[in-house]
């Protein structure tokens, strides 16, 4: 055996003549004696299990592989394992060294969210770990992602009204130089819908689907969903009923028998207020007013 050579293989994405390639680069020891390199490409087929997809023998300090959508697809986690050996005595080999797994495709950061029904906006970054190619001659170097939400109940059944709101229904990932595992990125915000219902904590999913893409690599690809857990928060209630009896948010009770339009509620922290209109209800013994209209902003 050769001693450990610290080859330290690393996978990086690159664009070669308009096609996405992955490149496995490794450190090259001193040129003497001359070495050859065996590079085995593999991907995760099931959790914890890898399948070999290519085997190269080269004198170079790198090996490349095209992402053609067939043997190497978007959504794959890819590894390269490098072994050096003597050209004259190939049985003398170094210990094989494996790269870290490279995820090729669309990623969301963070990968999951835990938010509450408090009106706060949470930033979600969408990025591509591989370069965006320009198809044809229209120079549209971007991927358009259609965003949608799904709300799931306790038994993973679809529920009624939306539980989260997105700041955009579509985002464009524009071509940019690759750096720090991102070759294109976009940002949006996620907010929990304040639904005034005590419906417990609920799980929603954000889905992104590439649209209008002719390239085989992107056409058959759907990124992994983002799981969003929404924590239910209690909401206040106030009432105005019958002739009208009023119960405030803190439980205080009083009556308002007058005719006219009144400000029932106004928030001091956001644009929210409710007006009520009261008319004569035709009480026989004393003046009685009833709610006949409401306006909310």
From TrEMBL:
Entry GO CC: cell surface; extracellular region
Domain VWFD: 236-297
Organism of this sequence: Herpetotheres cachinnans (Laughing falcon)
Name the record gives this protein: VWDE protein
InterPro entries for the chain: Dev_Signal_Modulators, Ig_VWDE, VWF_type-D
Keywords: Disulfide bond, Signal
Keyword check for Heme: no
PROSITE patterns xrefs: VWFD
GO MF terms, alphabetically ordered: signaling receptor binding
Keyword Zinc-finger found: no
Sections of the chain in a coiled coil: none
């Amino acid at each position: 055996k050769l001693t450990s050579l610290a080859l330290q293989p690393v996978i990086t994405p690159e664009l070669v003549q308009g096609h996405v390639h992955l490149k496995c680069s490794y450190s090259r020891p001193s040129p003497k004696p001359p070495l050859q390199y065996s590079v085995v490409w593999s991907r995760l087929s099931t959790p914890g299990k890898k399948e070999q997809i290519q085997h190269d023998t080269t004198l170079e300090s790198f090996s490349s592989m095209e992402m053609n959508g067939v043997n190497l697809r978007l959504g794959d986690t890819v590894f390269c394992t490098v072994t050096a050996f003597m050209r004259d005595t190939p049985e003398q080999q170094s210990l094989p060294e494996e790269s870290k797994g490279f995820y090729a495709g669309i990623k969301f950061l963070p990968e999951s969210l835990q938010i509450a029904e408090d009106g706060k906006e949470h930033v979600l970054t969408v990025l591509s770990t591989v370069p965006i190619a320009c198809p044809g001659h229209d120079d549209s170097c971007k991927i358009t992602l259609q965003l949608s939400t799904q709300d799931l109940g306790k038994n993973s059944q679809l529920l009624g009204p939306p539980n989260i709101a997105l700041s955009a229904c579509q985002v464009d990932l524009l071509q940019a130089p690759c750096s720090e595992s991102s070759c294109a990125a976009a940002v949006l915000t996620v907010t929990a819908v304040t639904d005034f219902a005590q419906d417990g904590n609920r799980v929603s999913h954000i889905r992104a689907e590439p649209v209008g893409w002719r390239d085989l690599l992107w056409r058959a690809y759907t990124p992994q969903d983002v799981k969003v857990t929404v924590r239910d928060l209690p909401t206040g209630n106030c009432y105005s009923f019958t002739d009208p009896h009023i119960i405030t948010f803190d439980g205080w009770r009083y009556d308002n028998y007058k005719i006219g339009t009144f400000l029932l509620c106004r928030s001091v922290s956001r644009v929210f207020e409710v007006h009520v209109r009261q008319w004569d209800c035709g009480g026989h013994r004393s003046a009685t007013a009833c709610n006949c209209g409401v306006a909310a902003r």
